[in-house]
Amino acid sequence: ATTTTNPSAISLGSPVVSTESLGPNPIVDFVSSKSGWIAGANGIIHTTDGGATWTNQFQMSGTQIQESQGLGFTQLQFVDSLSGWAVEKPGLILATSNGGDNWNQIAPPALASGGTPSMIDADLVNPTSGFILCAGGPCATNGQLYATSDAGKSWALEALPISARLVTETGGISAMPDISMFCFASPTIGWIAGGNGTVAAGGLEIYGTANGGKSWFGQLALKQTRLAEPVCSTSDPSVAWVLAIGNAGMSQESYSAFVTTDAGANWKPSLETYAAGAGYPPHPASSPDSNIPAEGSHNGPGSSPIQLVDTGGQSAIMIADRNATDNGSVYVAYTSDAGTSWFPNTGYSPNLGNQVGGIQTGGGVFPISASFISQSAGWILGSPIGATTQDSKVLISTVDATRTWKEVSRFAPQA
Question: Which residues are registered as beta bridge partners of 367?
Answer without folding.
Answer: 382
